[in-house]
Design goal:
Blueprint (H helix, E strand, L loop, with lengths): L7 H50 L3 H21 L3 H6 L6 H30 L8 E2 L2 E2 L3 H25 L7 H34 L6 E9 L9 E11 L2 E9 L14 H7 L2 H4 L10 H16 L5 E6 L1 H10 L2 E3 L2 E3 L4 H12 L3 H22 L2 H13 L3 E5 L2 H8 L15 E9 L9 E12 L2 E12 L5 H4 L2 H4 L11 E8 L5 E7 L7 E5 L2 E10 L4 E9 L8 E5 L18
Parallel strand pairs: 3-6, 10-18
Antiparallel strand pairs: 1-2, 3-4, 4-5, 6-9, 7-8, 10-13, 11-12, 12-17, 13-16, 14-17, 15-16
């Protein structure tokens, strides 16, 4: 006869379930309380970061120090709250786990940045009079760079590591508010890493490159984005800079008219010839079509010495949008019949000048005046902190490329964004690229716009990276008659006035091969080439005013399908949208 008690085994199971439920409730409460604390800490970090940026920008270093200490305190607290074994255990829970892991990783990044990057940066700021880096009478004091090189290097290394860690967070698996926060974190860390990396590179390279160990000569090539080339735009004007003991002077200015086409091309790589024949080796204007600026810079130097002689220690290429960034610091400029402001200088240089000044020779004179006025304004009266920031912003957008004839310097440049070389894929990231080169023969790219979407996944059982480029001609419907013939090219190269014709080259991850190519769903004829170990597919696209087209290329195999895939592209007047989309297999 039963005494009403459960068997021992069933009681044991009941107790076990009860204990587990109790532990689960406790664990949920534990991570909830700690999660609230961590989120609050991270919100304080974000708020402090904004305040810190404002303090440093205003030169209030005394005020920046306590803000930095507060950031470090909150970041360390958030990291501590999200690194215990209970929190980490919730990180493996299906669906919810990625959110816990993401918060923990964000806290870890914040702690690392505050400890390993922020502290040395503040040491630099507190121990250095930024005015000593100023441009006074065309001279830069090179002595302070030795003091800041090591701490900037430490900070740059920490920020680069944080950038990689932020990219590795799987934002797609998190809840929308957290995914948005991750996106903001990535942007902030990337901007900081780029700016500090540029400053560190400057601290390493400037003492020698600006003539601290002997005079240097550099060719400055100014690119016009209204007629696109791979690294920004056609070479519109060119000059020689002389640097000695930190003093920079403008020696010689020239135009493309001073460089007639060569009968025999300069040496070019096989990939350049495959994409553009020998034109970059014969025409100065086309040298920046060369995808790798290490090759382009050396070729520009050869053209200069072939025309003017002398020795060239390096080449600096900048595009017209850099003027906008610099003028935000230097203020308005007057050249020719124009008074330019930061808001209208791009429109003047890339569009309005052609309607106001029909004579190309006079245009060249005005471009030279504009370059000289901007150069003198930057070297004589710019706020040093703001100028460095403007140059860092321009470099981050890919609008400054530098090649050095000195091997040690070129090695450092080639490994940075300033070098403009074809990137290397690795565990920290995979790259794809889109290069635009105008073949209209006018200045119609003032009206072109782009969207470059990427998607990764699996198609037909193979890892796949898809690149989709949408190219649009926004010129007015009456462009053939309303725009100057110099802008439309007036059909001289076989393109109807008002239309655009563009070579769009898409390269894939290292080792991957193209598995599908189409333009608006059709399979057009294309050119193929190889950039180092990257396959390249190039389309020629023609668009009437208002028309748009979409080119899609899928790459499969080795290197494809990597989540950490980043797109590089020709710097355009207006930066293209670069969304990451869900893969829909075209092949």
């Amino acid at each position: 006869m039963s005494d009403g008690r459960l068997p021992v085994r069933r009681r044991w199971i009941g107790w076990t379930v009860g204990v587990l439920l109790a532990l689960l409730v406790i664990a949920i409460g534990w991570v909830t309380v700690r999660g609230i604390g961590a989120v609050n800490d991270l919100q304080q970090v974000a708020k402090g970061a904004t305040q810190l940026k404002e303090s440093i920008a205003s030169g209030d270093l005394d005020g920046a120090e306590p803000i930095a200490r507060s950031i470090a305190r909150n970041a360390a607290s958030a990291d501590d709250l999200t690194s215990d074994f209970v929190w980490q255990a919730f990180g493996v829970v299906p669906l919810l786990g990625p959110n816990f892991r993401a918060v923990s990783e964000i806290a870890d990044i914040a702690d690392d940045v505050s400890t390993d990057a922020l502290a040395p940066l503040l040491d630099v700021a507190s121990g250095l009079d930024l005015a000593s880096l100023g441009f006074s009478g065309g001279a830069i004091d090179l002595a302070p760079f030795a003091a800041i090189e090591q701490p900037l290097g430490t900070a740059s290394t920490a920020l680069s590591a944080a950038q990689v860690q932020a990219r590795r967070i799987d934002a797609d698996a998190t809840l929308p508010p957290l995914a948005e926060a991750i996106g903001q974190l990535r942007t902030a860390v990337t901007q900081a890493a780029t700016a500090v990396g540029s400053l560190h590179g400057a601290a390493v390279l400037l003492p020698t490159m600006l003539g601290g160990e002997g005079p240097r000569n550099y060719v400055l090539a100014m690119q016009n984005n209204a007629e696109l080339r791979s690294s920004g735009g056609i070479v519109g004007s060119i000059a020689l800079l002389h640097a000695e003991n930190g003093r920079i002077s403008l020696q010689t200015q020239a135009s493309t008219r001073d460089f007639p086409p060569l009968d025999t091309s300069l040496p070019l790589s096989e990939s350049t010839i495959a994409l553009f024949e020998d034109r970059p080796g014969r025409y100065l204007q086309n040298i920046t079509s060369i995808p790798d600026f290490a090759e382009a810079g050396e070729t520009i130097a050869a053209r200069w010495t072939g025309r003017f002689g002398g020795t060239v220690d390096g080449v600096i290429a900048v595009d017209a949008v850099v003027a906008k960034h610099l003028m935000a610091v230097t203020g308005d400029l007057t050249f020719g019949p124009f008074t330019a402001t930061p808001e209208n200088v791009t429109d003047i240089l890339l569009s309005e000048i052609y309607a106001a000044v029909p004579d190309p020779a006079v245009q060249d004179e005005i471009f030279a005046q504009a370059a000289g006025a901007l150069f003198n304004a930057a070297l004589s009266g710019g706020n040093p902190k703001a100028l460095l920031g403007a140059l860092a912003d321009s470099a981050a957008e890919g609008r400054i490329r530098i090649w050095s004839a000195h091997d040690e310097e070129e090695s450092l440049l080639a490994s940075s964004a300033l070098g403009g070389t074809i990137p290397k894929d690795g565990p920290d990231g995979t790259y794809v690229g889109v290069l635009m080169n105008d073949s209209t023969g006018g200045k119609m790219d003032f009206y072109t716009r782009a969207t470059i979407a990427t998607a990764i996944g699996t198609c037909q059982g193979l890892p796949t990276t898809q690149v989709r480029v949408t190219w649009t001609n926004t010129a007015p419907a009456d462009a053939a008659t309303s725009l100057p013939a110099y802008v439309t090219a007036d059909g001289f190269y076989g393109v109807p006035a008002g239309s655009t014709r563009t070579l769009i080259a898409i390269y894939g991850p290292a080792g991957a091969t193209p598995s599908h190519v189409d333009q608006d769903g059709k399979e057009p004829g294309v050119q193929t080439a190889v950039l180092e170990d990257r396959s390249v597919i190039q389309h020629e696209v023609s668009l009437a005013p208002g028309e748009s087209t979409t080119v899609t290329v899928e790459f499969q195999g080795t290197g494809a399908g990597e989540r950490l895939t980043e797109v590089l592209h020709t710097p355009l007047i207006e930066a293209p949208d670069t969304p990451r989309e869900t893969l829909t297999c075209a092949s």
